[in-house]
Write a structure and sequence with these properties.
Layout: E1 4-6, H1 10-20, H2 26-44, E2 50-56, E3 61-67, E4 72-78, H3 85-91, E5 96-97, E6 99-104, E7 111-117, E8 126-130, E9 133-134, H4 138-149, E10 155-162, H5 164-173, E11 178-184, E12 187-188, E13 194-195, H6 201-206
Helix pairs in contact: 1-2, 2-3
Length: 209
């Protein structure tokens, strides 16, 4: 079974509380989401492997460590996942960025992929899927399945707020994918919104409601 990591850093908790407030406008919402994404990216990359490298400082030659192994790719789920890209890239500017568009069919209620554009070497990278909200888990599961079809073997999921139902859905479908969240909320309501949540993240990011 995959591991669920909940970040309890005081700054993340503080910023998320401001984001939850209904009077927080799009500008502040976007900035806070970017800041939290940066803090989470710092923690998610904590276990990247290091290798020794001989370098020369202005004083002498020395052996120091740099990141080795597979490179990172991030894949935001459109559209709300776009709000997490800048913060992640602040910490890891060499990461490549793919994009995955998924919507829920209003009749079947099933997720449908409508867009995908990935780096050519996506299968050789450690992939982090970005989506602020993990509600039912449908979009995340669909995106992860598409990435696996492309040959990706090391995939993680990074969310701002998750419902227990969404976490269970992802773990049941993709038990090999670790989940990183800033908060696990109470439940989903009858409209599949996270409670207490923060509303529709895409609308709040882009000011479309």
């Amino acid at each position: 079974m995959s591991k669920v990591t909940v970040f309890d850093h005081p700054l993340i908790t503080h910023k998320l509380t401001i984001m939850r407030q209904k009077e927080t406008g799009s500008k502040d919402f976007r900035e806070l989401l970017s800041e939290i994404s940066m803090l989470m990216a710092y923690e998610i990359t904590r276990d990247l492997p290091l290798e020794e490298l001989e370098i020369e400082t202005p004083i002498c030659k020395t052996t120091q460590k740099m990141v080795s192994g597979k490179k990172i790719a991030i894949v935001p789920i459109l559209r709300a996942g776009l709000g997490m890209v800048e913060g992640f890239l602040t910490i890891c500017p060499v990461a490549k960025v793919g994009h995955m568009g998924v919507y829920r069919d209003p009749e079947t209620k099933l997720p449908v992929r409508y867009y995908a554009k990935m780096p050519q070497d996506i299968a050789e990278r450690k992939v982090v899927v970005l989506d602020p909200m993990l509600a039912t888990g449908g979009s995340s599961n669909a995106a992860i399945s598409e990435l696996k079809k492309l040959g990706c073997k090391e995939i993680s999921l990074m969310n701002l707020v998750a419902a227990p139902e969404g976490i269970r859905a992802v773990q049941e479908t993709h038990p090999d994918v670790n989940i990183y969240v800033a908060a696990v909320d109470d439940c989903l309501n009858d409209h599949a919104y996270i409670v207490p949540g923060l509303g529709d993240a895409g609308d709040r990011i882009f000011g479309t409601k």
